[in-house]
Amino acid sequence: MLSGVAKRYTSLFLKSIFIISLFIFIIQTFLVYHDHIIGSWYIFKVSSTGLQASLTMTSKIVAIGAILIWFFQVTQVKDIAAAMQNAGWNKKLIFVMLSTMQLIPQMTSMMNTIADAQRSRGVETEGNLITRMKSFVPMLGPVVLTSIEQNEERVLTLESRAFSNRQRPTLMVPVNKTKADYLLSWIIIIIMLGIFYWGVFK
């Protein structure tokens, strides 16, 4: 809410992490059980062990997923790349990480473009589940071929910009850290060390 992305964040969270967590919670609750049965419905049984295992697993998924969704809602990819370069990371490692971050948005945009092209040719891409599945399978081929073609273009673009050069590149996006950034970094390091100490020695 303080970041100003509450509406967009909530919508994305409910469409992704919440659905996955709810599905895993239901499956774990009814499939993992032992002697301590606390409830039953037809052939399904709920035990305290299964309920505890479900809460543990889904809480971890929600915690990690919620943080990642919020992080990418308030941070642009170019700022992440600039911060990594400013910290002296290997540019090949930066490229691999950024490519992974951009993979899903690029595939989604590509799927939408191909779906629009198929609709313009009279192919039904909307309707019930069966109709969508029938239209989804023919789109896989163009998506894979387009991805391969884009990778080749990306390699040529990187080489034209002297990606393989060993010299340090010039930062086009400046990253200016304030005292609050350094203070927050030290606070996070101290907290992580405390969690590590507590988990190992307690």
Automatic annotation (TrEMBL):
It is found in: Membrane. Pfam families: CbiQ (PF02361). The lineage of its organism: Bacteria, Bacillati, Bacillota, Bacilli, Lactobacillales. This is ABC-type cobalt transport system, permease component CbiQ related transporter. One of its GO terms (cellular component) is plasma membrane. Signal peptide: none annotated. Keywords: Cell membrane, Membrane, Transmembrane, Transmembrane helix. It is a multi-pass membrane protein. The keyword GTP-binding does not apply. InterPro entries: ABC/ECF_trnsptr_transmembrane (IPR003339), ECF_transporter_component (IPR051611). PANTHER family: SLL0384 PROTEIN. The chain crosses the membrane at residues 12-33, 53-72, 182-201.
